[in-house]
Amino acid sequence: MSSPSKRREMDLMKLMMSDYKVEMINDSMQEFYVDFHGPNESPYHGGVWRIRVELPDAYPYKSPSIGFVNKIYHPNVDEMSGSVCLDVINQTWSPMFDLVNVFEVFLPQLLLYPNPSDPLNGEAAALMMRDRAAYEQRVKEYCEKYAKPEHVGIVPEEKSSDEDVSEDEYASSDEAVAGQVDP
Fold it and tell me: Model-level pTM?
């Protein structure tokens, strides 16, 4: 890659081609939202979060800034600001990583394996260490309250007009017009 801006463009295009919904902010390639779905086999499954991503001028040599827009209950995410405490983003970032890594590896790993010993949300960390079942129940409550598709602007798909017709409406009176079948 000849420049950080070309790498930024390439990584962003790669993310968009990976089936993530990406919404640009101010038509710049440095700030955008990504809709992120909670990983399967976790209490976050079924949740959808809008993640704000800011790419510094020095990206990929400097890590992106990542934050949850809608609320999430997690020991390593600040409940008010949405800031993420994740070593690979904050301390050990490498230009070998790209945006797809963030959404396919780093964030799912964060949700699957919270680290209560390095919390941004002390209450979530304490509850997780004290009562894992109660912690998972609180996570699910937050998912239900703050992380439904409509909370990130995803509109449920409309039924096609064919599906809107009930069986009663669909059955026509053509049979009566045709008369009886000859034996």
Answer: 0.78
